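Here is the promised in-class demo. Please do not try to memorize the tokens; focus on the logic of going from shape to residues.
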């Protein structure tokens, strides 16, 4: 690692980390080592492949996992605690994913300090990409299971002691025996309250100290009221609370609540927990070849480009590299969307995050860490997991005032019923507190959204913006770019036409040398056509005009000829009459003056329509979506593709600016636009649409400006995303409506005294559980063939070569 550059004393004083939030003792101090920061974050403005010194980066973007939070108010508490730390610029916390995104300045604060602020607020924080995170989460699941088992055992014992009092006739049960049964129940409830109910009490006390109202507070108050009333009835049976004790209701309530919470966490991790599975996909260590040819297992962080690794069957490939020995099958489903294993032999590339299935192989490391495609996928999924959709933000705003109203209703109920029966009045208040916990309301949206995002990720679609799912569900117009979307990203030169005095081979090489400076599909086709002669030309300067073409200053290699400016692009930019008159074409011309071009050559291109394009477009149109085609290509090429896929509304020769203007005009007419582009020259359009897709193979994921990134070449995945987004919005609305109806029915019943505490606990647990179960329906994969019937479009035959 590079040595740290010393700073002047005055600058050190100005940029020293704040001491207002001292780091706690323990392992958090280890995270202050700049070498550790890459393990759970990255520079905010990082450039893939560019090296940097961690401590010299001005702003870091880190992701942490959280423990001890259960609801939206917990998330708000953590956000406030983080934002109060000097040096923390932004904090976003997701209650459903139990993760946080923190943007911080190393010159002002260290990771141990803002993590200590989280711990001071009563929660635990640890790096999201730490291998220990999964172990801690599993340990918490085991502890939650033990809490539920203890509460259930106590409930069965207390019910056994309570049954004689319910079944006995007047005079059958002596007061001494009834007191003994009450004492036995009281003793059994104590360990339950200490161990099983401990998190509720600690959470309520934590929020009271911070003068906040959380969902733990009404639950803890309900438990305390029930236990105190029953305790007074046990110790003073002749008093006002001595007629009846409620240990059975308390234990049943706690057992139901803990069972529902445990099942909820299990289901939520299974459905919306795709992120954890991705983050822990890479191994902690790998076998590296030493100088003597032997292999030694070393930590993954010690691997660098050029090393040779041995990957055993069942292990994940930890880096991007090339196989140098062996042959195997690889599972690349997460990274490409392809569910079938693919063969990988010597000389072929493997990608980090894919699994070695059949045989040990040796590979040479090309890319590690943040330079791999896997790291980009993780970054996108982490970013999406901490986002809050609009409906979730609305639920968060409602949750806290709703809890205050609940406390007021419980107090009013106790006051109203007190003259009749003080013990019964307090139990009614406890039932009101218990039954109206808005956990289901706060989970209704984020659990459904994260489940849908996890399902899309498993099918080969990454969600960059969680709000995009809601926007996609309400889209009524879907706009396609042509090249690389409806057509395959594999253009080829079908015919070349050279000017009267031109040298075909030289012009092929000239066009290829210029085209190599761009990653547009058209440029790649021209570059591939003349790559064998491209080395004869030197490109001195180049500029690219999005949607039109390239302008370059070129010179023959090893020749005394002066440099010249040439253009390679569309007919409007570089074309001239008489070169190529029909079809999709790109033109090469010499720029004598800015307004005077000498035509050199024309290249007619052929492109293959995606086999599923016509069926997908037809399915979208049948569902009520309006489908349009906007392209920068010529009218004839665009009309041919539009006719083959069945799109009647299309516009040709569109620049990125005109595409954006066209979309904004439709938006002004009230249309909700979903845009599908190749991500290369469609950046402004993708950003301007209500929701957008880009194909990940066309552009680096870190540079994509779309809401969704399609990892494979299957256009049908876009249609799947539309269907799943609509289903997700239906599930969210069902969850919100169900939560609202539940509270509207349960509050009057509890205030009227018709809902005992145990039934209130059961209703509260079931309401949250039903929300998660309803969202779990989104985890079912949508079969590809069911989305749209396959129709084989007829493509015109084109000559393969010039």
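The designed amino acids, position by position:
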């Amino acid at each position: 690692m590079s040595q740290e550059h010393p700073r002047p004393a005055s600058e050190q004083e100005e940029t020293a980390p704040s001491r207002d939030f001292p780091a706690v003792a323990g392992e958090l101090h280890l995270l202050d080592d700049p070498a550790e920061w890459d393990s759970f974050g990255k520079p905010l403005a990082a450039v893939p492949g560019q090296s940097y010194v961690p401590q010299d980066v001005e702003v870091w973007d880190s992701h942490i996992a959280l423990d001890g939070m259960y609801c939206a108010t917990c998330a708000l508490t953590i956000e406030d605690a983080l934002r109060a730390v000097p040096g923390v610029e932004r904090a976003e916390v997701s209650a459903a994913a139990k993760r946080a995104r923190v943007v911080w300045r190393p010159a002002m604060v260290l990771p141990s300090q803002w993590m200590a602020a989280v711990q001071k607020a009563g929660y635990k924080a640890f790096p999201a990409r730490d291998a220990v995170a999964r172990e801690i989460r599993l340990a918490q699941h085991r502890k939650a299971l033990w809490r539920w088992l203890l509460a259930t055992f106590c409930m069965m014992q207390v019910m056994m002691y309570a049954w004689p009092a319910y079944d006995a006739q007047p005079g059958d049960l002596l007061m001494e025996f009834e007191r003994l049964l009450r004492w036995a129940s009281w003793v059994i409830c104590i360990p339950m309250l200490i161990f099983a109910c401990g998190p509720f009490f600690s959470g309520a006390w934590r929020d009271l100290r911070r003068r906040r109202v959380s969902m733990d507070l009404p639950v803890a108050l309900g438990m305390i009221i029930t236990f105190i009333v029953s305790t007074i009835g046990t110790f003073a049976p002749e008093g006002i609370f001595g007629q009846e004790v409620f240990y059975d209701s308390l234990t049943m309530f706690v057992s139901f609540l803990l069972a529902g919470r445990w099942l909820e966490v299990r289901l939520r991790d299974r459905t919306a927990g795709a992120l954890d599975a991705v983050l822990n996909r890479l191994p902690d260590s790998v076998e590296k070849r030493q100088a003597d040819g032997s292999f030694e297992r070393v930590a993954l962080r010690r691997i660098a480009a050029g090393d040779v690794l041995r990957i055993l069957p069942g292990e994940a490939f930890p880096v991007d590299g090339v196989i140098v020995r062996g042959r195997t099958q690889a599972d690349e489903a997460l990274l490409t969307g392809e569910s079938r294993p693919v063969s990988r032999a010597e000389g072929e590339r493997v990608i980090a995050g894919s699994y070695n299935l059949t045989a040990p192989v040796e590979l040479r490391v090309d890319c590690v860490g943040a330079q791999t495609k896997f790291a980009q996928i993780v970054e996108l999924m982490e970013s999406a997991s901490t986002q809050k959709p609009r409906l979730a933000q609305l639920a968060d705003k409602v949750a806290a005032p709703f809890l205050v109203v609940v406390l007021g209703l419980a107090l009013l109920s106790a006051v109203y019923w007190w003259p009749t029966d003080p013990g019964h009045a307090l139990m009614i208040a406890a039932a009101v507190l218990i039954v109206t916990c808005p956990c289901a309301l706060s989970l209704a949206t984020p659990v459904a959204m994260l489940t849908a995002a996890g399902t899309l990720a498993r099918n080969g679609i990454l969600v960059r913006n969680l709000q995009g799912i809601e926007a996609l569900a309400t889209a009524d117009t879907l706009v396609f770019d042509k090249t690389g979307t409806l057509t395959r990203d594999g253009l080829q030169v079908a015919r070349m036409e050279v000017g009267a005095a031109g040298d075909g081979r030289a012009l092929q090489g000239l066009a290829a040398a210029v085209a190599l400076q761009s990653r547009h599909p058209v440029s790649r086709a021209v570059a591939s056509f003349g790559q064998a002669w491209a080395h004869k030309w030197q490109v001195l300067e180049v500029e690219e005009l999005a949607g039109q073409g390239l302008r370059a200053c070129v010179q023959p290699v090893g020749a005394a000829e002066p440099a010249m400016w040439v253009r390679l692009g569309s007919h409007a930019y570089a074309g001239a009459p008489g070169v190529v008159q029909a079809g999709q074409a790109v033109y090469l011309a010499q720029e004598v003056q800015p307004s005077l071009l000498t035509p050199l050559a024309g290249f007619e291109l052929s492109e293959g329509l995606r086999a599923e394009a016509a069926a997908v477009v037809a399915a979208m149109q049948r569902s009520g979506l309006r489908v349009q085609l906007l392209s920068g290509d010529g009218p004839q090429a665009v009309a041919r593709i539009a006719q083959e896929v069945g799109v009647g509304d299309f516009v040709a020769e569109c620049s990125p600016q005109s595409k954006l203007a066209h979309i904004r005009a439709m938006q002004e007419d009230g249309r909700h636009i979903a845009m599908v582009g190749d991500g290369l020259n469609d950046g402004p359009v993708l950003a301007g649409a209500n929701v957008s897709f880009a194909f990940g193979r066309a552009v680096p994921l870190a540079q994509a400006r779309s809401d969704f990134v399609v990892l494979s070449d299957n256009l049908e995945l876009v249609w799947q995303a539309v269907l799943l987004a609509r289903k997700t919005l239906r599930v969210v609305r069902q969850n919100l409506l169900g939560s609202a109806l539940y509270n509207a029915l349960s509050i009057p019943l509890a205030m009227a005294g018709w809902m005992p505490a145990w039934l209130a606990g059961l209703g509260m647990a079931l309401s949250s559980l039903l929300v998660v179960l309803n969202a779990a329906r989104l985890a079912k994969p949508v079969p590809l063939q069911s989305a749209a019937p396959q129709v084989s479009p007829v493509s015109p035959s084109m000559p393969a070569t010039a």
